[in-house]
Amino acid sequence: MSFHWFRTVFFLIPAIAVYTIVLGIASITSSFFDRRGYFAHGCARAWSWLILATTGAEVTVEGLERVTPGKTYVFVANHQSIYDIPCLFWNIPFQLRIIAKESLGSFPMLGPHLKRTGHLLVDRKHPDRAGIVGWASRLTSNGLSLIIFPEGTRSRTGHLGKFKGGSIMLAMQAGLPLVPISVIGSRHVMKKGELTTRPGRVHLIVHEPIPTMATDHPSTHDVRALADQVREIIRPPVEAEAAAV
Question: Any idea what the Cα angle at residue 152 is, between residues 70 and 227, rounded to 5°?
Answer without folding.
Answer: 65
